[in-house]
Amino acid sequence: MSAYRIQGTTGEWEVVIGLEIHAQIQTEAKLFSGASTEFGAEPNAQVSLVDAAMPGMLPVVNQECIRQAVRTGMALGAKINPWSRFDRKNYFYPDLPAGYQISQLYHPLVGEGAIEIEPPDAEPKTVGIERLHVEQDAGKLIHDQSPSQSYVDLNRAGVALMEIVSRPDMRSPVEAATYVRKLRSILRYVGSCDGNMEEGSMRADVNVSVRKPGDPFGTRCEIKNVNSVRFVQAAVEYEARRQVDLIEEGGRVIQETRLFDQDTGVTRSMRSKEEAQDYRYFPDPDLLPLELDDGFIAEARASLPELPDAKRHRYVEALGLTPYNADVLTAEVETARWFEALLAAGAAKQGKGEAELAKSASNWVTSDLFGALNRIGREIEDSPVSPTQGAELLALVADGTLSGSLAKQVFEIMLETREDPGAIVEARGMKQTSDTGAIEAVIAEVLAANADKVADYRGGKDKLFGFFVGQVMKAMAGKANPGVVNELLKKALG
Amino acid sequence: MTAITDLGIAALRDGVRDGSFSAREVAEAFIAAVEAGRALNAFIVETPDHALAAADEADRARASGAHAPLAGVPMGIKDLFCTKGVQTTAASHILEGFVPTYESTVTAKLFAAGVGMLGKLNLDQFAMGSSNETSAFGNVVSPWRRGGDATALCPGGSSGGSAAAVAARMVPGATGTDTGGSIRQPAAFTGISGIKPTYGRCSRWGIVAFASSLDQAGPMARDVRDCAILLGAMSGYDPKDATSLDEPVPDWEGNLSSSLKGLRVGVPKEYRVDGMPGEIEALWQAGIDWLRDAGAEIVEVSLPHTRYALPAYYIVAPAEASSNLARYDGVRYGQRVTPSQGGIHEMYAQTRAAGFGAEVKRRILIGTYVLSAGYYDAYYTQAQRVRTLIARDFADAFERCDVLLAPTAPSAAFGLGEKTADPIAMYLNDVFTVPASLAGLPGMSVPAGLDSAGLPLGLQLIGRPLDEQTVLNAGLAIEQRAGFTARPEKWW
């Protein structure tokens, strides 16, 4: 596939994108206070004296937030800085009780790293990570409760965020969207962020500029707080087009902050660089520099799970899955977890190696299970069928108890009743039969009832064989072993 | 018989414990003294009920045999410490009416040790000032007067209410805080003792912040022993303050010793500044002689970057203050001015314009300026470099000596209004105290003599990090030899 280009009146343009992702660290307590971080509480129910910036209150760093950020940095292949420091970013706004946000400007916790992305229908590429630092979230202002006043909800104030800054390495809206998806996947594997963009656990600031291919970077605009992958893509598309049109009409892109309107799909100016605040960053004197010892770093590294790229390679190399299945099964940590539980249970049940079962299991998950979940509108983590039940179903197929069609029927019942497949087969007599006497008897009946078709078949209409198979299976309520039916039918039709 | 209000912390503690008098009698005597001393304006809020309740508790506990270490001892609390259920203002209108729902770590420790609170003591607004004249609730008047002269004098600052109340026998001891000299200078001006411990000894949790990297609480009392007792009760690691030191609290009182045999006392030559009054120079020499008499060896040392300390301090402290004081915005607590028009930023502007005093505004402006883009490196970064050099100066000096001796302030107390027009002259008061603050070292002022007008002068001892004991011991040696018994003549 060729590179993404914007067609202008003066020729082709290239878009350059860099992303700053704010990811809420998944911890019970805030970054510098013991207040809870649970989503959905009553306004101001999760605010400590520190979060409200009462006089004399002091921040004390929550070690777990640092540990999660360090693990994330490791998952991004990034340099972990054993010495980092918190700085204050000063500005006045009612959602910021202290009048400053505690962040890390000068000495971030995590330095340079990179992630691999594979945009659909395009070459894989590496996107550089410039840095990852830890900072506080702000509170929320509510403007629609009163005509003359704004309300403040400080539940989010002080919640720990990771700001993950990419290099301006992306060159198309799809690449940007793929990068966000990939980063989200990694964070969820690591368990440092739930990646829930609707609840605001992940937000993107999107930096966009355009240039003629080969030219130096153009002036960029920053689109703030974009809260879905789809919107990231749409915002880049709109903004790049806007800049191209502006330049071609003789205008000049000015460095500014813009907002993306989800309803209209356009970006509009929020404030220009000239209006930009002077944040007067300086080291927070309430906090000592953050020094990580070797033990802490080693423990964080040891606690990292297998990450999506490594898993995908292993699924292809060691388990023999198709690249497509491997991709689909590793994209989300819950899917991979479910699949691996299924494999483990299946191997135990059938006494075989995981690699032997992996192919059929992966096909069943990606077609039957995904299809069913899609139909009933559930995520894999709340699938009505457990991995153990899935393994049992596959084992019943493998040992010949169930035919493929019987297995599908049993699976439907499992989805509905959550019963174990063995119990369903037993209770409803859904076992496949290979009893030749019974099958021969039914074949005789079918042939007798369809003498004309038997004559046609014998006269050369080979295609009618399928019809006879169908009739026999139907008469036996799908329980006949199809292999045996085929064999006996051929004999009977001679 | 000695009046109860003439007794210090140790005597009151021992007297209550031994049954020489009841805690109730002690509390009532000091409450009466507080009421009689209102002309000094040392208190912003009086809390006799708190003192009485603690006293009654002490008397009950004594009867039942359980005795807290400071049972029956009343104190004054600088109004920079948040006190649960008692208005805390930092002497600023912007916090007028603010009643904390929490108790600062230091006051909680004192109260747990049995201390009762007589009231919240006046101070320079947000602890910014050297004369107590920046308080929004009127200046404190020093109980001291020049001989034959009724000119009202300042008690020093910022812990001026604490100093005046101790000197006037309205309280036997008080909490202070010291950012650049706010315990030591007023102690010197009022003829009492005060110690700023090593940065991190006392938790800053619940103390209204001025400059976080410098602020440190400490006691102010009549003598060195009383300071040792109170410091022991105020100190200790606090996990709620990230800059708190996780170090054991020594038994400073128990280890007091004025025998300085084998101790080397350093005399920093750079503290001999031009224009230093001869009386102060003479007192310094007397101090050297007393310490030598106590067995110490005297060595001259050099602190070459001393002259840069004051400018560096007046960059770092306002920078931190400009950020620390941003929270006083009228949104959540304290005073709010609601403008008839304009939005949130107009509300901020009017609230802060009305709520902060002139000196506070000056420092917010200085601090905002030195942190702004384009100036940050020239001012803030440079000042931090100076700070590092100053700390190194001290470390080098302590290779050659164990404790430093210097004057506390360049003059005796001055008259109210004398220096308010010239901020630089006012800032120069801190010239001898600021270096130890920048280096986070323990520093103490002990009364050592009177000037020709009959006003007290103090000598300062500066020690190694965590070595408050040597500072206290050297202070005790001076105290015993100076024979300082002067007290202000009661005119109020």
What does this structure look like?
- The complex is a heterodimer of chains A (494) and B (492).
- Chain A has 494 residues and is of the alpha+beta class.
- Helix content of chain A is 40%, strand content 18%.
- Chain A has helices at 63-75, 173-190, 229-248, 294-302, 308-317, 323-330, 333-350, 354-376, 387-398, 404-417, 421-428, 436-449, 451-458, 464-475, 482-493, and strands spanning 6-8, 11-24, 83-84, 87-90, 100-103, 113-117, 125-136, 140-142, 151-153, 160-166, 202-211, 221-226, 256-260, 267-272, 282-283, 290-291.
- In chain A, helix 2 runs antiparallel to helix 3 (229-248), helix 7 crosses helix 8 (354-376) and helix 9 (387-398) runs antiparallel to helix 10 (404-417).
- The two termini of chain A are 55 Å apart.
- Chain B has an eight-stranded mixed sheet, sandwiched between helices. In chain B, strands 1-3-2 form a three-stranded mixed sheet, sandwiched between helices.
- Chain B has helices at 9-18, 23-36, 48-64, 105-112, 160-167, 184-190, 224-234, 278-293, 309-324, 344-355, 358-371, 376-400, 423-427, 434-439, 468-482; strands spanning 43-46, 74-78, 116-121, 173-178, 193-196, 216-221, 264-268, 297-301, 403-407, 443-450, 456-463.
- Chain B has a domain at 4-257: Amidase signature (AS) enzymes (Alpha-Beta Complex).
- Chain B is globular, with a radius of gyration of 21 Å.
- Chain B is 37% helix and 13% strand.
- The longest helix of chain B has 25 residues, at 376-400.
- Chain B has 15 helices and eleven strands.
- Chain A binds chain B through residues 49, 52-61, 88, 90, 92-94, 97-100, 150, 152, 278, 280-282, 285-288, and chain B through 81-82, 88, 90, 95, 98, 100-102, 104, 204-209, 211-213, 239-243, 319-320, 322-323, 325-327, 329, 331-333, 344-345, 348, 368, 371-373, 376, 380.
Q: Please indicate the count of domains of chain A.
A: 3
H/E order of the elements of chain B? HHEHEHEHEHEEHEHEHHHHEHHEEH
CATH topology of the domain at 4-257 in chain B: Amidase signature (AS) enzymes
The secondary-structure class of chain A comes to: alpha+beta
